Amino acid sequence: MEVLSKQQWKTYRSATRCHICGKLASLDKLASYLDKDELKIVRSEFSTLSDEKLELLTRKGVFPYEYVDCVEKLQDTRLPPRKSFYSSLTGDTVSESDYAHAVNVYQRFSIRTLGEYSDLYLKTDVLLLADIFENFRESCATSYGLDPAHYYTLPGFTWDAMLNHTRVRFELLTSPKTC
């Protein structure tokens, strides 16, 4: 087994990249693959919003996790400055365009406190993830005739998908002597 370098260990611990291919793994990336009509749960929950406002919620938002170090900061009546969106996990501050998006959401939804922004941010995150997972389930059911939600792990699901696809039949081992 290979020993990880300090940088490899840091990357592994941050879980911001796929450990196999090295590509960024993010909710925003997954959400971008869905067509607007595939965002059924988001649309259902925000059914009273205009298409323009709904569009603001169909991507991953940003949140100043490290800035909010006490409950009182959730009462702030303004979005903190961009530098407050620094993450020691990634070592980055949000991009100017992501911060501008956060400011736009804050203004367009007439948000009064950082706590209200947090609620909308979390709700949007959960609903996007739910739509992504439901799309994954539908895709797997169409492709393999299997529902990944009926499995404890993805390896168990892929094993059954392989068995269905190859139509391999294993001999049932009934005696330790047959091993």
Write a brief structural summary:
The protein has one domain (28-166).
Walkthrough of the structure:
- The protein has one domain.
- The protein starts with 5 loop residues before the first helix and ends in a 13-residue tail after the last helix.
- It has 179 residues and is an all-alpha fold.
- Helices cover 47% and strands 0% of the residues.
- The protein is built from 7 helices and no strands.
- 10% of the residues are buried.
- The model has no long low-confidence stretch (mean pLDDT 89).
Q: SSE order in H/E notation?
A: HHHHHHH
Query: How large is the count of helical segments?
Result: 7
Q: Please, how many domains? A: 1
* Rg result: 22 Å
Organism: Trachymyrmex cornetzi
Protein name: DNA-directed DNA polymerase
Topology:
Blueprint (H helix, E strand, L loop, with lengths): L5 H9 L12 H6 L7 H6 L5 H6 L39 H13 L5 H31 L9 H13 L13
Q: What key phrases describe this protein's structure?
A:
mainly alpha, 7 helices, 0% strand, 179 residues
